Structures are given as C-alpha cells and as structure tokens.
Amino acid sequence: MHRKISKLLVVGAHGDDETLGAGGTIARLADEGVTISLCILTNDDGSRSANGAGVVNRTAAIELAAKTLGIERVRIHEFGDNRLDTVSHLELNRTVENEVRDFEPDTILTTSMCDLSTDHALVSRAARVAGRPGKGSVQEVRTFEIRSATDVGEASGLPVTFRPNCWQRLEETHIERKVEALRAYGKELEPWPHPRSERGVRALAEYRGSQISTELAEAFEIVRVVY
Ligand SMILES: [Zn+2]
Prior knowledge:
Elements: E1 7-12, H1 17-31, E2 35-42, H2 46-49, H3 59-69, E3 73-79, H4 89-103, E4 107-110, H5 118-130, E5 140-144, H6 150-155, E6 166-170, H7 172-183, H8 198-211, E7 216-225
Parallel strand pairs: 1-2, 1-4, 2-3, 4-5
Antiparallel strand pairs: 5-7, 6-7
The structure holds zinc ion (ZN).
C-alpha cells in the first residue's frame, strides 16, 4: 500500500527541530510538489538566556531554514523555550488544532515522545491530539528523531523508545539542503564529533540509509496511518 502526501504539516517545539528531524525529507517532498507548512511552538532561547546569554528571537533563522528546505508557510508561536510544561494542555492542544484546521494537512510530522526534551514530548502529544482520527483531514502522523534528544532519551531510561518503522530515501542534494538549513541556526551546527555536526547529520543519514540498503535516508516512527 502506498499513500501519496499532498499537504504536510511539520510541528516542532523549537526552530531547528524540523531540520534536524526531517530536513532531508522536507526538501525531497517540497521538490516533489508537496505543500508544506511549518508550526514552531517556541520562539526564544530560554535555556540560553537563563545562562545570561540574552534572549535571542529565532524568527529570522526559522524563516531562512524553511525557505532553504522549500517550506511555503511558516507559523511561529510565542511560547517559552523549555517552558512548555507551564502551558496548559488545553492551550497547547488548541494551538496545534487551529493549525490543522487552518491548513488541513493530510500528514503530520512531529517530535518524538521518546525525547529527553520535555518540550518535544509535549509537542508530540499535542500533535497527536490534533491529528487524531475523526472529522479532521489528517490521515497519517509520524514522529522523527533528533540527535542528542531522541538518542539521549533512550539512554536515559525513558519508558518509551524510538522504533523506526518508516524510511524516506534521500539523495545527496537533500542532505546538502538539510545542512544548509541548519547553518541558518548559527551555533546549532557544532564541530565533529558532536552529534549536531555536519558529519554527524550525514552519519545518521548513512546509518538509516544502510538499514534499507540505500545510501542516505531519514527514519520515522508511524504513530497512525489510514489508507
Ligand atoms: Zn528541540
């Protein structure tokens, strides 16, 4: 069986989640004519400002990364980084539900419940609620993996583990655009062997690719799909 994606909504907690988790896939689907909307729930560097580094608004970086990947529509909300646990479930759920109602995606990609980041887990839950079966347009919900969030979550003994059951084949050009989009976030790209280095991004794509005997891929866990 095969589902063709027409309208994709990517839901992330932080600007860069979309690129780290699914940048190659987004670039590929954009090339194939899929209409893509990005919803990011937070728009500051709260954890960094707590360290005295000053609050940095990420709007420009998010928009530049989105343009690089071929995302047509960007919605950035103003919840606080690392503070989504202070927002009511009702408010968070309604925010993502409104995005779904406005854009009417058939597919949602979002963060994983398995991530050590509480923001990621809460956003994943809200996206699942917004994409639940019923009157809405959503036929499929998938989660993506983010280095030093998903893999650290597993290692920290969280009760859930990211178990990929869906792979997207990628070409070299898609990984190049993923790395270019990450550069929009400035300091987010670290030197090798950091997991969020250019080589680290490539290493994961090669590993996920080799799992399906192809050069490059991104892996996802399908939460639900309706045929
Ligand atoms: Zn994040």
